[in-house]
Amino acid sequence: MMNFDDLHQEAKKKILDAKDLKDLNDLRVYYLGKKGPVQALMKNMKDLPKAEKPAFGKKVNELKQDLNQRIEAKRDELTILEMNHKIEKEKIDITLPGRRTRSANLHPLTLVTEQLEDLFIGLGYQVIEGADITDDEYCFERANIPKDHPARAMQDSLYIDENYLLRTHTTAIQMAVLEQNAPNLPIKVVCPGKVYRRDDDDATHSHQFMQMEGLVVGKHVTLSDLKGTLEFLAKKMFGQDRQIRFRPSYFPFTEPSVEVDVSCHICNGKGCPTCKGTGWIEILGAGEVHPNVLKMAGYDPNECSGFAFGVGIERIAMLKYGIDDIRHFYTNDQRFSDLFDRFE
Ligand code: DAH
């Protein structure tokens, strides 16, 4: 049997060295339990002379008390230690950046449509939309393109039946707007929307694309009004240094008709691959509304005049953002749309 003092020393050291609460509890059960060495000392008491018994009993009790106190002190220490350890382990670093929720962007065609709309709303225009399905009357007849007109050949489309078709140009909306407003003046509208053509898709052609029609009708609305308006558009979309020029052209629904070029925003008009060395880029068709068109809608061409233009939204977007293939707009590759975040 271990001597009293050795036992005390050993127990004190082990309690001091206990590495966790479980370890400490094992020590408590061992030293103070019924089968432990302290209890074994008590058993020796019966062999002692009577006079020594009280002193021995007292000593063993003091030993028990001392060990108990040490165990409790150690338990407090270990409890705090374990709690600190747990706090440390579960600490949340509030300086970590949060997880970004990915917000969607506008499709570049929506972006450019909205930019154009904003620009014209700023000039006092109304935005009017129409249905994608229209009829022969509004798509062609009212636009001064009768059945035997060669211009029809360039605008074949998807027909629903003999009469109804997917509109080939937003000029169909222009014709409806004219009829609905006649004979009131003035009219100032832009009409964005999808249009459809029978076409083989390639880098510059798509059977479905977008246009925005512009129409102003009033007293003495002239080509110079058109020029000022389009100059504003060119500067807003392609930069303040842009200039525009008119080239004579032909459209059945305008007279005179013009093709409008903007000075190249890449080379500043010096000549580069984008403008094919000319310094100019064609952006849209326009003209003075043909008297026949005004007449068919219910206006007197001697009393009023107007200008109209039709701009391809893809064309503007491709020029503005350097997009080389019209099919990018329609193949729904998220990586393509993601590029336009920074242009908002
Ligand atoms: N409708 C024409 C086209 O799709 C574009 C156009 C040209 C519209 C001249 C107009 C205009 O209003 O005046 O090719």
The unreliable regions are: none
Q: Biggest sheet: strands side by side, in what order? A: 1-4-5-9-8-7-6
Helix content: 40-55%
Question: Which percent range describes the beta-strand content?
Answer: 15-25%
Q: What profile does the largest beta sheet have?
A: 7 strands, mixed
Report the total helices: 11
Q: SSE order, as H and E? A: HHHHHEEHEHEEHEEEHEHH
State the end-to-end CA separation: 88 Å
Shape by Cα distribution: rod-shaped
Structural features, described:
The structure is a single chain. The mean pLDDT is 93. A 7-stranded mixed sheet has the order 1-4-5-9-8-7-6, with helices on both faces. It has helices at 4-17, 21-32, 37-44, 53-89, 108-122, 136-139, 171-181, 223-238, 291-297, 313-321, 334-338; strands at residues 126-127, 133-135, 164-166, 187-196, 208-218, 244-251, 254-263, 280-289, 305-312. Helices cover 40% and strands 19% of the residues. It contains 11 helices and 9 strands. By secondary structure, the chain is of the alpha+beta class. Bound molecules: 3,4-dihydroxyphenylalanine. The site of 3,4-dihydroxyphenylalanine has 12 residues, from helix 7, strand 8 and strand 9.
Quick recap:
This protein has 11 helices and 9 strands.
Descriptive tags:
alpha+beta; rod-shaped; two-stranded antiparallel sheet; single chain; seven-stranded mixed beta sheet; binds 3,4-dihydroxyphenylalanine
